[in-house]
Design brief:
By secondary structure, the protein is α+β, with helices and mostly antiparallel strands. Helices cover 26% and strands 33% of the residues. Strands 1, 2, 3, 4, 7, 10, 11, 12, 13 and 14 form a 10-stranded mixed beta sheet that branches. A two-stranded antiparallel sheet has the order 5-6. It has a two-stranded antiparallel ribbon with strand order 8-9. The relative contact order is 0.23.
Length: 242
């Protein structure tokens, strides 16, 4: 009697490259594993790198659970320049001098965005207005009101301040639904010079660390057995959260 092969199940952590999308990761896993039941737990901006969580088989049932967990990012912001997307992929909409801004000013500005506060998602985002993603409206030149979200910064660290280059490197540990682009933009507004994000990397999501992730070249070269061996069992993922 023929028996169908057991359907794959588990969580795959992918270290996303710039330009590699969640859709790319899902499509690749579907093809390699020969299964349709594949999803992901939250997108990363096109220029961003780092942790992308792919759920396979019965693990798709825990998507919401995994998406709700805190995240940790490393990032770089450029002071004095604002873009319409709040990152380096957008068009410059304003330029202001950073003369007179000190490291103490910058540290004080970051401190204003510690703990719980409201954050308005950017126009270039997947947030939907009447069923339409904001980024689609933004591409048409439309600006619509977005509802503020209650978010939280659990901790942050400023790791480099280069006043000559007007750049700041930082790490931020934040709640779900947090836009690091908007965080940088809002800090720039507080400083009075504007700012945008030039680099972003997600290094942790809940219990998952980027050190556990498979890089994109390895993922593209993997066969079915190799990919199955990289899956984190659903039982272990749930046990870590019990």
């Amino acid at each position: 009697m023929n028996t169908a092969p057991e359907q794959p199940c588990g969580v795959l952590l992918v270290d996303k490259d710039p330009g590699f999308t969640s859709h790319n990761a899902v499509a690749l896993c579907r093809r390699i594993l020969n299964t349709k039941k594949v999803g992901h737990c939250g997108t990363l901006d096109p220029m961003a790198t780092g942790m992308l969580i792919v759920v396979i088989g019965k693990a798709t049932k825990v998507q919401d659970l995994l998406m709700c967990e805190d995240k940790v990012y490393t990032a770089t912001m450029k002071l004095g320049i604002e873009t319409n997307s709040q990152d380096a992929d957008g068009e410059v909409v304003a330029e202001k001098t950073t003369t007179g801004i000190t490291e103490e000013n910058i540290r004080a500005a970051f401190e204003q965005f510690m703990g719980e506060f409201d954050q308005v998602p950017p126009m270039y985002s997947a947030v939907k207005i009447n069923g339409v993603p904001c980024y689609k409206l933004a591409r048409k030149g439309q600006e619509v009101e977005r509802k503020a979200r209650h978010v939280k910064v659990l901790s942050y660290e400023i790791t480099r301040v280069d006043l000559a280059a007007a750049e700041v490197d930082f790490t931020v540990h934040c709640s779900k639904g947090f836009y690091v682009r908007t965080y940088a933009h809002d800090i720039g507004q507080h400083l009075g010079c504007g700012a945008h994000l030039t680099a972003l990397r997600r290094i942790r999501s809940g219990h998952f660390d980027i050190s556990e992730a498979v890089d994109v070249p390895t993922l593209k070269a993997a066969d079915r057995e190799e990919l199955l061996a990289r899956l984190l069992p659903l039982e272990k993922v749930l046990a870590d959260r019990s």
